Amino acid sequence: MKTFRALLASLSIAAAVAAAGSAARAAEPAPEPRVISIAAHRFAFEPAEIHLKKGETVRLDVTSGDVSHGFFQRALHIDADLAPGKTTPVLVTPGEAGAYTLICDHFCGSGHGGMKMTIVVE
Amino acid sequence: MGDRGSRRDFLKIAGASIGFGALYRAAPGLAAGSPLERLIARKNGEGVTPFSFVQLSDTHVGFEGPPNPLGTKAFERAVDVINGLPERPELVLFTGDLTHDSEKPGEHADRMRLFRQIAGQLRVPKLFMVPGEHDAALDGGTLYRDALGETSYSFDHRGVHFIALDNVSRGKPILGAEQLAWLRKDLARFPATAPIVVFTHRPLFDLKPEWEWFTDDGDEALKALASYQNVTVLYGHIHRENARAIGSSTHYAGRSLIFAFPDPESGQPKKPLPFDTARPFQNLGLRVVGEGGPRPAIDEVELGIQEYAGTVGSQQFRKEADPQ
Fold it and tell me: Is the N or the C terminus of chain A less surrounded, counting Cβ atoms within 10 Å?
């Protein structure tokens, strides 16, 4: 019986240690995504083209330098509002390779229709 | 004059009945005041009686540039064409971008006034309009409302329910939760057979999102309309013809009256098609909606050089193939 209790105790300790290890792993911060800064202003994004890797999560820090803009790309699930003078973080994890046209979808004046950039996923 | 003759025949037919779907198909040629006609009228509200109407779009009053150095000439010619139709339409619906935006103080208001002045020449009983983003997106529709009225509303005409939707004045291509709630409430009083015409600026579906040819919450509007059997949606924005059936609704884009965009499937960039001095109104025009069978008849009218030159020729009305 003593042997059984000792075994039970050791198993409990082992389980506790395992749980603690698991919790420690869960608490580990995820690796920081690569960050690309993008400037938005009437009527362009800069840079006008960026390159991403398929499956890689990237944070796009998009700063509007003047008025409200949109930041929209349907297939990449990007749909953000850019407030004037603020930086908006946008996480993206491309699933498919290709060249995607991203547009400003918040009307910002007569040149609005040409405000776009290209995201190339390799 | 042969084409003009066939057009007159079309409009004569259009005058015989207006075929908005099941209601007309169920009871063609009903005698006015007959018991069945009264029964249908009670069910749908007002009974459907014959009429035709016109869609005009994207006049962009105030636009200046190489894609169209003639400014409002096409709009003015369209007004003349409509006034010359042998059967006068009862309504004209404008589907947005009536004016081109301007940030110079007072200039956009001047353009609104010029739009009203030209549209006021139409010898048509009623004009209705919705804004495009060039009219209403920069100021949330304030100037538009002052000059031209509300941006969304509904009305009934001869048994057809018309709904004007605003998918531009919130800056982004959305209708918004408040307008969608209003739409659902507005529709609730109609039976599934009611003929419904929605007119708006942007397409309510994803036509070409990377060209901003979509409405982000348009699917919510389509859900609200899905249980109605006779829905026609007219829109502008894309500066070219397009027809798309979605469930029981059919969506038609109207030509612009300033310049045309290329076919989005052609691989060309989204740039206005170049102005052609030999055919200055190429790809510009209007739409006449009238009698049909299962669906209203859609008649595309391209403005021709003969009209611009003031001459009358066999190409005065160039009918396009039915997009259906």
Answer: N
- SS3 readout for B172-211: CCCCCHHHHHHHHHHHCCCCCCCEEEEECCCCCCCCEHHH
Nearest to B133 among A72, A107, A116 (CB): A107
Q: CB–CB of B180/B224 below 8 Å? A: yes
Give the N- to C-terminal CA distance of chain A in Å, as an integer. 63
At B94, which amino acid appears?
Answer: F
The helix/strand/coil state of B299 is strand
Residue B108 main-chain phi, psi, to 5 deg: -70, -40
CATH C-level class of B2-319: alpha beta
A34-121: CATH number: 2.60.40.420
Best mutation target among B107, B211, B212, B239 (most A Cβ atoms within 10 Å) is: B212
Note if the pTM is more than 0.80.
yes
ipTM for the assembly: 0.79
Domain ranges of chain A: 1-30, 34-121
What pLDDT score does A33 carry?
Answer: 94
Interface test with A, best of B64, B133, B261 (most A CBs within 10 A): B133
| Assigned token pair, A16 | 């506790």
Q: Is B301 exposed, middle or buried (0-12, 13-18, 19+ CB in 10 A)?
A: buried
Alpha helices (H) in chain B, listed in sequence order:
2-16, 22-26, 35-44, 73-83, 107-119, 133-136, 142-148, 177-187, 218-225, 305-309
Q: How far is the C-alpha of A93 from the C-alpha of B211, rounded, in Å?
A: 22
Interface of B with A in 236-275 (CB under 8 A): 270
pLDDT for B139-157, tens place per residue? 999 999 999 999 999 999 9
Tokens of B120: 């006021």
